[in-house]
């Protein structure tokens, strides 16, 4: 699950990044509304955590601009403002949810997973293809009746494949799904993690569902 966190306070941004990464999410950080604009338009995010108070604008304006630009990633507004009028304004500008500071990470991650599952369009609660099942909210996956023990990165890659079964996913697309923007794109990390994923989802079961498409990327054969 890839999340854009828009927060100008460095300490709060770092706390959010570390807490959400511990929950298995991939985090990109933006410190201004301008950064949020171009980052949200140039990559696909499962959710956006948007602070209301930003140095160059406010979160309400950022959310309105994203919706006007047809960016429909779910937006969770994060703020210390507890006035009903502010919550209404946030929802009216296109936000999907609203969390007040201080908050618990248990609540924040639960809300983010619920938003990601709902997504910009209706998404199934459980993804299924090629004899595999994955529950994004519960962070669990199975081959048939056998539950799989996956690392956070392996889970993220499997989720990417199960959201687009039968399609070829390039290494760049898989990097985008599982690693932040600062990651070195020329690395062979994707190939290494695909091998690890095959060792978990295919080889123990005598299956060959994860296929290499030479010169292009990888495909989950349904």
Description:
- The protein is α/β, with parallel strands linked by helices.
- It folds into 2 domains: 2-120, Response regulator (Rossmann fold, 3-Layer(aba) Sandwich); 127-220, Orthogonal Bundle (Arc Repressor Mutant, subunit A).
- The protein contains 8 helices and 12 strands.
- It has helices at 10-22, 33-42, 59-68, 84-92, 105-118, 152-163, 171-178, 189-201; strands at residues 2-6, 26-30, 47-51, 75-79, 97-100, 127-129, 132-135, 140-143, 146-147, 168-170, 210-213, 217-220.
- The strands form 3 sheets. A 5-stranded parallel beta sheet has the order 2-1-3-4-5, sandwiched between helices. Strands 6-7-8-9 form a 4-stranded antiparallel beta sheet, with helices on one face. It has a 3-stranded antiparallel beta sheet with strand order 10-12-11.
- Helix 2 packs parallel to helix 3 (59-68) and helix 6 packs across helix 8 (189-201).
- The protein starts with a strand and ends with a strand.
- The model has no long low-confidence stretch (mean pLDDT 86).
- It comes from Paraconexibacter algicola.
- Residues 2-116 form the Response regulatory domain.
- One of its GO terms (biological process) is regulation of DNA-templated transcription.
Query: What is the β-strand count?
Result: 12
* Amount of beta strand: 15-25%
Specify the CATH architecture of the largest domain. 3-Layer(aba) Sandwich
Q: Could you tell me the mean pLDDT?
A: 86
What layout of secondary structure does this protein have?
Blueprint: E1 2-6, H1 10-22, E2 26-30, H2 33-42, E3 47-51, H3 59-68, E4 75-79, H4 84-92, E5 97-100, H5 105-118, E6 127-129, E7 132-135, E8 140-143, E9 146-147, H6 152-163, E10 168-170, H7 171-178, H8 189-201, E11 210-213, E12 217-220
Helix pairs in contact: 2-3, 6-8
Domain Response regulatory: 2-116
DNA-binding region: 124-222
InterPro entries: CheY-like_superfamily, OmpR/PhoB-type_DNA-bd, Sig_transdc_resp-reg_receiver, WalR-like, WH-like_DNA-bd_sf
